[in-house]
Amino acid sequence: MNKTKANISTQAVRGRDLWAFMFVAWVMALAASLGALFIGEVMGQTPCILCWYQRIFMFSLAFVLGLACFKAEPGAAKYGLVLAVPGLVAAGWHVLLFYGVVSEAIAPCTQGISCTDAEMTIRGIPLPLLSLLTFTAIAALMMRIALLKENS
Q: Are 142 and 84 in contact, with CB atoms under 8 Å apart?
């Protein structure tokens, strides 16, 4: 009988952990989305093509993860991962352009400010790097949720 209570208690804790991880990922996606809107609409910076790709994935993440939190659906982690990984790739390419690892001659940016412009920073931290870190953290949380769900 005690073993059954322990299993139920362990499952309840895992369920709360799954929801907490999903909630943290949603807050990060929402903050990044609101930040991107602020930079574009309030500060007036026109996003480059790579920024648009990252926005598409981040805005979608904010929506999907918000629904997952509302419905307490840890299975949505796989959808979050499907959105986070391509965003991570776009952000990674953007970081390589920003730091000059990849030549700007092959940059897809034809509108807005340059991908390597000094205006692409907040308090000295490059926006592409912030995007990369956010996508990486969200992808890590989605993988953690998937592993916890698989092991339960």
A: yes
Place of tokens 């979608």: 60
The radius of gyration of the chain's CA atoms, rounded to the nearest angstrom, is 18
Residue 30 corresponds to which amino acid?
L
pLDDT tens profile 45-92: 777 888 889 999 999 999 999 999 888 887 888 999 999 999 999 999
SS3 109: coil
Q: What ranges make up the beta strands (E) of the chain?
A: 121-122, 125-126
116 within 8 A of 100, measured Cβ to Cβ: yes
DSSP bridge pairs for 122: 125
Taking the C-alpha atoms of residue 144 and residue 147, their distance in angstroms, rounded to an integer, is 5
Q: Measured in Å, how far apart are the chain's first and last C-alpha atoms?
A: 19
